[in-house]
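Q: I'm a student working through a structural biology exercise. My instructor gave each of us a protein and asked us to get a predicted structure, then write a short paragraph describing it. Mine is Glutamate receptor. I'm not confident about reading structure output yet, so if you can add a plain explanation after the tokens, that would really help. Here is the sequence I was given:
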Amino acid sequence: MLKKNWEMYEGNDQYEGYCVDLASEIAKHIGIKYKISIVPDGKYGARDPETKIWNGMVGELVYGKAEIAVAPLTITLVREEVIDFSKPFMSLGISIMIKKPQKSKPGVFSFLDPLAYEIWMCIVFAYIGVSVVLFLVSRFSPYEWHTEEPEEGSDGPPSDQPPNEFGIFNSLWFSLGAFMQQGCDFTPRSLSGRIVGGVWWFFTLIIISSYTANLAAFLTVERMVSPIESAEDLAKQTEIAYGTLDSGSTKEFFRRSKIAVYEKMWSYMKSAEPTVFTKTTAEGVARVRKSKGKYAFLLESTMNEYTEQRKPCDTMKVGGNLDSKGYGVATPKGSQLRNGAQDKSSQALSLSNVAGVFYILVGGLGLAMLVALVEFCYKSRAEAKKLKVESAELNFSPAPSPTHSVQNLATYREGYNVYGSDAVKI
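A: Happy to help. First, here is the predicted structure for Glutamate receptor. I'll explain a few features afterward.
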């Protein structure tokens, strides 16, 4: 896009933006000089159904008026038949732009909004059910019944305290006090009653925590009611008009689509009066802003999100993307610029990039060898101790029995003759 004070500059310096920076990097990468020019008709490129002539950027490339197109040019099958594209440099999809609706005024009972209507009704029934169960178990359990007899020698009147504190009204009051996290002046005495109370306290803890968390979100987040949330919402109504750019991939998408919803939308758009198509994206955005919510513009998500963040911030994107595609750098069919822009896009990794991996490998191998050496030494020492013990056991000879002892036992061998004392028998 042109700079604000573009008249003060010349040539390529008059322009700024993402695509301008991308073109500069591509030129440095493949070593070319370039001159930026704006397409005269301001269109991306579509083929006229009658004359079969291409307009916009695609036409400039097809008819040899430009060598390369660096722009948010969507890669489509029809365009790839006549020009070449690089790999996508940005992913996107068709989205819906509407005028941002007014903030909704909070209602008198908006404090109930954090929880759904069904949840509130279930809480009421749960409160009644817990109170009834508490009343019943208190009546059946003998530990909830108690009587106070007057002390011996006391002339005072008998106690007016009931034998069971958990009547139906007290049960309701106990459950309400627990739900409001205020407690009560009496508590269950029986195990069954305490189980009911404990379960109800846990239920109350979860419900109150959830309500508090959602209430904080409801108070801090702006609530805006949008009449349109998806393409299906647009297709099934006629009060809000919708259209696309007159020449571009978005219009071509609806024209060629075989999906029932998109076919219905295309049927409406091509027959709408006055026309719902715009010559430029800026015209479509301006129409959305001036329509007071009666016109929705179908355009690519990148431009939609960009416009939403720009002042006066009165547009918004609704729903998800209708399709998935990408932007690519376009060149004439068979151009060498396309190969140059892609083949040199990456460099081989040097040793310094992966040196750490080799260090880890060598360190791991060294650690493994050290552990193996320690294991070998430990095992060898253990085996040596074991052999030493076994050898000592073999060399040990017990003392001769007294009944078989022979005095003056002395034998020795010299040559082949054996000599002994008189007490030795050979």
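A: Here are two points you could use in your paragraph. The first strand starts at residue 83 and ends at 85. The CA atoms of residues 74 and 249 lie 7 Å apart. It's a good idea to check both against the output above yourself.
Q: Great, thank you!
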